[in-house]
Amino acid sequence: MRGLIFDIKRFAIHDGPGIRTTIFMKGCPLRCIWCHNPEGISPKPQVMYFEYKCIHCYTCVNVCPQKAVYFDEGGMQRIKRDLCTVEQGCRICGDMCPTTATKIVGRYITVEELMQEVMKDANLYDDSGGGVTFSGGEPLFQPQFLMEALKSLRRRYIHVALDTSGYSPTEVLKAVEPLVNLFLYDLKLFDEEEHKKYTGVGNKVIKKNLKFLVERGRAKDIYLRFPVIPGITDTSSNVEGWAKFLQGIGKFERIHLLPFHDVSEKYRRLGMDYLMPAREAPSEEKMKRIAERFEEIGLEVVRGG
């Protein structure tokens, strides 16, 4: 049993209570145009290029067995995607780069190997009331690996948080729910068509799964998370839609407002198109108005993760 992850962040303090280790899992069924972790979208390994680290030694070009790596006239590394075999497991260019300018994003790991990593900070979890958070990507996109990891953490009495879009078969959520202490549950666009337009998928199952957790008596174990995306999620109609919906299904305690920030550099380094028209963070006035509306329905509003 192996899972595909793209990062392990130790000493995290924004992904749940206490000091945590956050596991970033690869693969996501959504295609949010503002995604702040684009390296988590693809369910396969990728090449990421950090030009500021590059010394133009051409090691990556010379060691690539498929001759897929080259530099353009401007001195930027390029990848011939039709030739590159990184998705099939090749890591030569990343492993051989002397400055880590070329990085392979995504590595396979067993549950046992993952436990060895997270248990390095077990004392910190105990002292701070922290634990392990699964993020991504979408952790529920790799249900079998996630389930085995959750079981292993439960046997070790480690607090677990799950950062999820809620876009998953309800049967998968039912299976993992008893093993999760805290859900970090994203709310994006309330309108079905708007959700499809900006994330690539509808939101019916997201609403259904949130209701399921409430019916299981887990409302108090949910930190709602609302990305404030200029011109997209920050509209009065979207905020009002979610406020009324939340008020109607259960008693939630907290919502985190996550302000947009420009991550176009990440997309460029991955060779991906960045489709966000906005580049500026939401105004303080906008953040305040959104916070006030959610406070009106009894939610504690927290800025940031």
Descriptive report:
- With 305 residues, the protein is an alpha/beta fold.
- It has two domains: 2-39 and 108-303, Alpha-Beta Barrel (TIM Barrel), CATH 3.20.20; 46-105, Alpha-Beta Plaits, CATH 3.30.70.
- 32% of the residues lie in helices and 23% in strands.
- The strands form three sheets. A nine-stranded mixed sheet has the order 7-1-2-8-9-10-11-12-13.
- Strand 9, helix 6 (170-176) and strand 10 (182-186) form a beta-alpha-beta unit.
- The longest helix is centred in the last third of the chain and has 14 residues, at 236-249.
- The chain is globular.
- The mean pLDDT is 96.
* Major sheet description: 9 strands, mixed
Structural class call reads: alpha/beta
CATH topology of the largest domain: TIM Barrel
What is the helical fraction, as a range of percent? 25-40%
Task: Give the topology, please.
Elements: E1 2-12, E2 20-25, E3 46-49, H1 59-63, E4 69-71, E5 77-79, H2 92-96, E6 102-105, E7 107-110, H3 111-118, H4 122-128, E8 131-136, H5 143-155, E9 159-164, H6 170-176, E10 182-186, H7 192-199, H8 204-215, E11 222-228, H9 236-249, E12 254-259, H10 264-270, H11 284-296, E13 300-303
Parallel strand pairs: 2-8, 8-9, 9-10, 10-11, 11-12, 12-13
Antiparallel strand pairs: 1-2, 1-7, 3-6, 4-5
